[in-house]
Each structure stands twice: as C-alpha cells, then as structure tokens.
Design a protein that fits this description.
This protein is of the alpha+beta class and 180 residues long. 27% of the residues lie in helices and 29% in strands. It has 5 helices and 7 strands; from the N terminus they run βααβββαβαβαβ. A hairpin with a 2-residue loop joins strand 2 and strand 3. The site of coenzyme A has 20 residues, from strand 4, helix 3, strand 5 and helix 4.
C-alpha cells in the first residue's frame, strides 16, 4: 500500500500544480494566473503527496443552482447544490498506484459531508491516455449522461495550448459528462 498525505492547496504548491497540469493535459492548459483565479473560487482544492513529491491535485467547484456562473452542462438539475470535479491529475510517474482513486474518494467524502443533497458532475476527458479511469467513476456510482465533441476547441485556441492527446491546436477531444 502506497503511503500518501492529502493536503489543502496553498500558494506554495502552485508551481507544482502547473507542472502536473503541463505534463498531464498539455503545456499551458493551466496558466499560473488561471490557477490563482481558480483557487479564489468557492470549492475544494487538494493535493496528494507521496515520496515527498506533490504527485497529484484536484480542483472542485461548488455552486448553488441559482449562481450565474454555473457551467452550461450543470443547469436544470434537481438539487440546488452542485459540485463539479473540474480537474483531477496525477503525474505519469505516479499513475496507476491508486492515488487518483484515493484523492477522488477523499474529495467525494468531503462534498457529501458538506452537503446532504448534492449533484456531482465530472467532465471527463475521453481521449486521455488514462481514459480507463472512467471505470473507477462507474464503481463510485457515477453514470455517463452526455458526450460533448470538441469540447475544448475554443479554449485551446484562446489559450494557445497543445492538448497532450491532439498534440496540435485546436484540441478536438471530447468531454464525457458523468454525474453522481
Ligand atoms: C486519470 C488519473 C487522474 C488517474 O490517476 P491514477 O493515480 O493513475 O489513478 P489510479 O491509480 O487510481 O488508477 C485507476 C485506473 O485508471 C486507469 N488508468 C490510470 N492511469 C492510466 C494510464 N496511464 N494508462 C492506462 N490506464 C490508466 C486504470 O484503469 C487504473 O486502474 P488499474 O491500474 O487497476 O488498471 C491520472 O491517470 C491522470 O492524471 N491522467 C491524465 C489526466 C486525466 O486523464 N485526468 C482525468 C480525466 S479528466
């Protein structure tokens, strides 16, 4: 069993998060200034440490259904509390050791502790090398509700990043939306 520590994110971890994101999603998928803005939102932001290394991170945003800034895909649902697992990543060197599942499970427990009734969304990158991770989502009770082709197309043009799967701009990957 791998030993690990889960911590809330603070400023000292921002450059480690940028480097995990560059590695997993593509260079500049997250800019330092984007990470800083993200961390000011209402949410849960955690890292997982093993081997004295920040091996992974997860950003979750929390919304009320009345919020104006709620993502389009989360509109019109039955609960008024919504959580979106926006980004989950583990450095390739530490993948397939269980850390992603551990971090996600920890965060789901946090969300459920905070909210009795909540709808949780996971916008999942379908072309990821680790797309088999969707099996973990199913095990945890998620189901797929919709597929969005070319979901990051405009994002990749606007932010000029090369997705790790497409290796060119624009990104043509699909997002599969899972819901719990
Ligand atoms: C998805 C991710 C967060 C999972 O983290 P992790 O620590 O590797 O997760 P786990 O070790 O708990 O793995 C769970 C399952 O995911 C799948 N998986 C994870 N990494 C994989 C890889 N590199 N290749 C193939 N399958 C992989 C496997 O099915 C694995 O189970 P198994 O090892 O028993 O076969 C991580 O692989 C990652 O950051 N990938 C790149 C970014 C990404 O795809 N994020 C999620 C989609 S939005």
């Amino acid at each position: 069993m791998i030993s690990y520590k889960i911590k809330n994110i603070d400023n000292q971890y921002i450059s480690a998060i940028k480097s995990i994101s560059d590695n997993c999603f593509g260079y500049n998928f997250l800019l330092i200034k984007t990470i800083k803005t993200n961390l000011r939102q209402n949410g849960i932001f955690k890292i997982i440490i093993t081997d004295n290394t920040v091996a992974g991170f997860c950003f979750v945003y929390k919304y009320l259904s009345t919020n104006n800034n709620i993502p389009e895909f989360a509109k019109n649902n039955k609960t008024d509390k919504i959580a979106v697992i926006q980004t989950l990543a583990v450095l390739p060197k530490y993948q397939r050791k269980g850390l992603g599942t551990i971090l996600l499970t920890d965060i789901l427990a946090d969300i459920k502790k905070q909210y009795k009734k909540v709808t949780i969304y996971y916008p999942f990158w379908a072309e990821s090398k680790s797309a088999n991770f969707y099996k973990i989502l199913i095990k945890l009770g998620f189901s797929k509700v919709k597929e969005y082709p070319h979901y990051w197309h405009n994002d990749s043009l606007n932010n000029n990043y090369r997705c790790a799967a497409c290796k060119s701009i624009p990104c043509e990957c699909s997002m599969h939306l899972y819901k719990l």
